[in-house]
Automatic annotation (TrEMBL):
The lineage of its organism: Eukaryota, Viridiplantae, Streptophyta, Embryophyta, Tracheophyta. One of its GO terms (molecular function) is hydrolase activity. Gene3D superfamilies: alpha/beta hydrolase (3.40.50.1820). Pfam families: Abhydrolase_2 (PF02230). InterPro entries: AB_hydrolase_fold, PLipase/COase/thioEstase. This is Acyl-protein thioesterase 2. Coiled coil: none annotated. Residues 25-248 form the Phospholipase/carboxylesterase/thioesterase domain. Transmembrane segments: none annotated.
Length: 257
């Protein structure tokens, strides 16, 4: 079942889907509030499980916001309903992207960041499908707009993607190269990508290819880390990498304890 509903034959959209997002979990900073990062869960998960893990990280200057995706039927699961940031059929460039779902989630996430204090640095991170929506948001930030043309309102300072991929990768290089502002913004945004070589859900080559595509599109500060034998999950070594990278990139105080 497709999410953008079309009238028969004409291809014009007859109804816009409204997506009901689930509960948002917040981890308050234990020290001085220097950065806020929205962290996005994977398919079928919720914000609560990640908020518990992030609370245990020694990053006292970060406020974590962990929203929960809407429940929708997902094509890759045969239409089974579960929490998902957008609809996905299969990992192939031949499959059309769910632009409406991508824009809806990216806007919901940007709205969460828009409410933060002006002196706080803003970032995004995520796992699997959450990483995909974080990377999609990075391209919206560079272009200054969502695919639907609405302006992207947030100044991102860091993006982290674990075990993920880049949706809408086909045309991103041409879109960014068409705008001096987009080139400048892409070059300004550091991105950390991590992927396990034994990932059985999002194959390793998709993570590596996404890193290469982003780099080719003008994202000059891509860090790509791979983990031998790691499947579709996180390990403490990887989260240490995230912690150290964020501390450096965001200039955080006292976070290396």
């Amino acid at each position: 079942m497709s999410y953008s509903q079309h009238s028969m034959g004409s291809g014009s959209r007859t109804a816009r889907r409204t997506f009901e997002f689930g509960r948002t979990h917040v981890v308050r900073p234990k020290g001085k509030h220097q950065a806020t990062i929205v962290w996005l869960h994977g398919l079928g998960d919720n914000g609560s499980s990640w908020s518990q893990l992030l609370e245990s990280l020694p990053l006292p200057n970060i406020k974590w916001i962990c929203p929960t995706a809407p429940t929708r039927s997902v094509a890759i699961l045969g239409g089974f309903p579960c929490t998902a940031w957008f609809d996905v059929g299969e990992f192939s460039e031949d499959v059309p992207d769910d632009w409406e779902g991508l824009d809806s989630s990216a806007a919901h996430i940007a709205n969460l960041l828009s409410a933060e204090p002006a002196d706080v640095k803003l970032g995004l991170g995520g796992f699997s499908m959450g990483a995909a929506i974080a990377l999609y948001s990075a391209t919206c930030f560079a272009l200054g707009r969502y695919t639907n043309g609405n302006p992207y309102p947030v100044n991102l300072k860091a993006v982290v993607g674990l075990s993920g991929w880049l949706p809408g990768a086909r045309n991103i290089k041409n879109k960014i190269e068409g705008s001096h502002e987009a080139v400048r913004r892409a070059a300004s945004l550091p991105i950390l990508l991590c992927h396990g070589t034994s990932d059985e859900v999002v194959p390793y080559n998709h993570g590596e290819k996404s890193a290469n595509l982003l780099n080719a599109a003008g994202f000059r500060h891509i860090t790509f880390k791979f983990y031998d034998g790691l499947g579709h999950y996180t390990v403490p070594k990887e989260m240490d990498e995230v912690r150290n990278w964020l501390t450096t990139r965001l200039g955080l105080e006292g976070s290396r304890a």
